[in-house]
């Protein structure tokens, strides 16, 4: 039997795998998951491991649906701002990328906007609501991941 200091891990492992989550064919990482971990907002390697290796059902709630509507409107507003400045703008799904790594894992991300001009290119993540210091660190880490795949 594990000592009491390890019982939390034992409980999490039993709870985690008793749901019989379907295993992914190969590890998959989304940039938002990595950004939380890289920024220090999440220090739980088990959570990242689980997301990467198992198909975890996503939650849908009225709050999430409301957020999506607000976010889409904010993205459309920022898109128009950049278009009015002469940028060519690509929105969400047009920016999605998938990278298969040499170690057998996949990385995927979808920047909200990519704005291009003859002078510069910008990767833009549109955020709504008040930003905490933690969310700003995560957002910065996510932009840094994106910037490595210009």
What features would you highlight for this structure?
150 residues; alpha+beta; three-stranded mixed sheet; three-stranded antiparallel sheet; 5 helices; 6 strands; disordered N terminus
Describe this entry's structure for a reader.
- With 150 residues, the protein is α+β, with helices and mostly antiparallel strands.
- The protein is built from five helices and six strands, in the order αβαααβββββα.
- It has helices at residues 7-18, 31-38, 45-53, 62-84, 133-147, and strands at residues 28-30, 88-91, 97-100, 106-109, 113-116, 121-124.
- The strands form two sheets. The chain has a three-stranded mixed beta sheet. It has a three-stranded antiparallel beta sheet with strand order 2-5-6, with helices on both faces.
- The radius of gyration is 19 Å and the shape is globular.
- Residues 1-16 have low confidence and may be disordered.
Short characterization:
With 150 residues, this protein is of the alpha+beta class. Helices cover 45% and strands 15% of the residues.
Tell me the overall shape. globular
Q: Please mark out the parts with pLDDT under 50 across 5 or more consecutive residues, or reply none.
A: 1-16
Order of strands, widest sheet: 1-4-3
Mean pLDDT: 84
- C-alpha end-to-end distance: 51 Å
Helix content: 40-55%
Rg, rounded, reads: 19 Å
Strand portion:
15-25%
Task: Give the helices and strands as they follow along the chain.
Answer: HEHHHEEEEEH
Tally of separate helices: 5
Please identify the structural class as seen in this structure.
alpha+beta
Assembly level: single chain
Number of strands: 6
Largest sheet: 3 strands, mixed
């Amino acid at each position: 039997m594990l000592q009491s200091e390890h019982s939390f891990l034992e409980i999490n492992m039993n709870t985690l795998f008793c749901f019989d989550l379907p295993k992914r064919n190969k590890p998959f990482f989304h940039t938002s998951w990595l950004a939380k971990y890289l920024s220090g907002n999440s220090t739980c390697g088990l959570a990242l491991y689980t997301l990467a290796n198992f198909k975890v059902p996503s939650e849908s709630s009225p709050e999430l649906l409301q957020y999506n509507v607000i976010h889409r409107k904010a993205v459309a507003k920022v898109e128009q701002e950049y278009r009015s400045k002469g940028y060519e703008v690509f929105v969400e799904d047009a920016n999605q990328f998938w990278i298969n790594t040499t170690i057998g894992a996949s990385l995927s991300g979808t920047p909200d906007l990519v704005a291009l001009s003859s002078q510069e290119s910008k990767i833009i993540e549109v955020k709504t609501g008040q930003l905490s210091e933690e969310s700003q660190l995560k957002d910065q880490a996510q932009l840094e991941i994106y910037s490595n795949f210009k």
